[in-house]
Here is the input.
Amino acid sequence: MKEKINKILGFLYDNLGIVLYTMVWLGIVSYFWIEVSGTEAFGFTLISFYLVLPLASLAVAVYYGAGEDRIRYYIPLICGVFEVLGGFFTFQFANMVSNGRWNTWNTPDLVMGLYALVPALVGLGIGMLIRFIRKKVGKQAG
Here is the structure.
């Protein structure tokens, strides 16, 4: 039992950036369903989908870009998918619930993914630059 717990904790530690990004995303979606009323929707959208998630994707991409993990190449795509799903599980899903049209699904807005994909690509570039500089300085010092 202790081995399984250590294995799970090791996996979570190795994927700390994705775990934290998922927690931020879940917090935003949960906050929408618990607290946001009709008058707060505009502010919620600006803060969460155009500020918090893009900055979080930038930070996660810098973190993974500076490392040696192969997952770093998938981080922009993962962040973009989370952004699209965030828009779908908040406003589009609420629209379906309020209209009572469960049989017609609104398609997710794929353009929203760019608001996390582009900062993640920039963050990946910054992280890879940081890794390159660390290796270069390490060779000169050693």
Summary: The longest helix spans residues 114-141. The helical segments are 2-14, 16-34, 41-65, 75-99, 114-141.
